[in-house]
Amino acid sequence: MGKISKGEKSWILYDWANSAYSMTITSTILPIYFKMVAEQGGMKSSTSTALWGYTISIATFIVAMIAPILGNIADYKGNKKRLFNLFFILGLVSTIFLIFVPEDAPVFLLIVYTLSTIGFCGANVFYDAFLVDVTTEDRMDYVSSMGYGMGYIGSTIPFIICIIVVLLSQNGIIQISVPLACKITFLITALWWGGFTIPLLKNVNQKYYVKKQSQIIKNSFKDLLNTLRKIKKDKAILLFLSAYFFYIDGVHTIIGMATSYGTDLGISMTALLIILLLTQFVAFPFTIIYGKLSEKYGGKKLILVGIVTYALICCYGYFIKTAVDFWILAMLVGSAQGGIQAISRSYFAKLVTKEKSAEYFGFYSIFGKFAAVLGPFLVGVVTQITGKTNNGIISLIILFIIGGLIMIRVPDLDKKIVVEENKTM
Fold first, then answer.
1. What is the C-alpha to C-alpha distance for residues 278 and 284, in angstroms, rounded to an integer?
2. pLDDT class for 371, splitting at 50, 70, 90?
3. Quick one: DSSP state of residue 5?
4. Pair 51, 237: CB distance under 8 Å
5. pLDDT tens digits, 223-235
6. Cβ 27 vs Cβ 120: under 8 Å
7. Comparing C-alpha atoms, which of 309, 300, 294 is closest to residue 243?
8. Dist CA 371 CA 155 (whole Å)
9. I need a labelling partner for 163 at 20 to 30 A (CA). Which of 60, 192, 224, 352 fits?
10. What stretches of 171-320 show up as alpha helix (H) in DSSP?
């Protein structure tokens, strides 16, 4: 493996940058802060929980719906960078603006959070699509894995700083209120996200593109329909997206439901927080290992390894009873969660036409976003019927079995790359 180029390094650093948003804003501190604001604004706890869920669904739905059409527009020369910049700035400015929302205005806070989420998720669509511009096909698995791996470390550093600020405030060591401490964490997150995005803004540019036409918007809708027809006819892409829909749903469900499952086992929130951080640190080296192994054995095989690992996690999750069991489960999740996502991204990048990468990644985003529906529903229904959370966890194995069986049928792209390289020698 050769030296990482400036473009690759700059692209990787964006994963390091934006992961702070995922950890601090999406997963931990903002949800807690929103509960404080909702209570201060006189909102019932049940109402605030429902509104939080609706907000996430609405923001996700908006991004999923606009991603393919914006992706098509982004594929025209120079547009990919412009649209990335637009959504990145929207997300960053909205995150900073969270600081200025009154502490008794929960609905206003949700509106600003929706804008920041749309900016964050929208920028990610174009960021993923830039993978084809910054590296070659034989390096995509490695570069994508490095991005995910660095993202895990990049999320934990500012998160630890933010948690320290909140804890110092709670314990009266620093004389500021907890809501103000939370606002400081939003600023830390924004500065981290913005600062480490600068290399991408300077060094990453669109290399593959479609020549501009007149009536771009009108032609984009026509191109979108043509791309849909191509996906239906392209066996490799259709099979991959179908497999991805099922197995990534299982992956996201296990990540999303882990805290709830741990709580059911009687694990304290402090212990769960420590487990979450350690899982991030475990995920970093294993994600890099996935990238290295994919160079030797191929991306398809590593995706299947990840699917099998998650199927085993479902089986192990059925039998766990103690906090030690949960620790082991969390470490198993950390060994596969980054690798399977990173290799999936790079494998899809190899499948698509480089000049149309943003549009195709728009569809990739749809499959990933809407996949987050079936898994939680399955866990909820099975748990409610049986009265046992572990039955809900093992039910997810169905998603990995279906995804794995479809993935087996996906053409082995890595063999094609080797053949093509041999022809050019």
1. 10
2. low
3. P
4. no
5. 667 777 878 888 8
6. no
7. 300
8. 24
9. 60
10. 178-195, 198-203, 216-233, 235-264, 269-297, 299-319
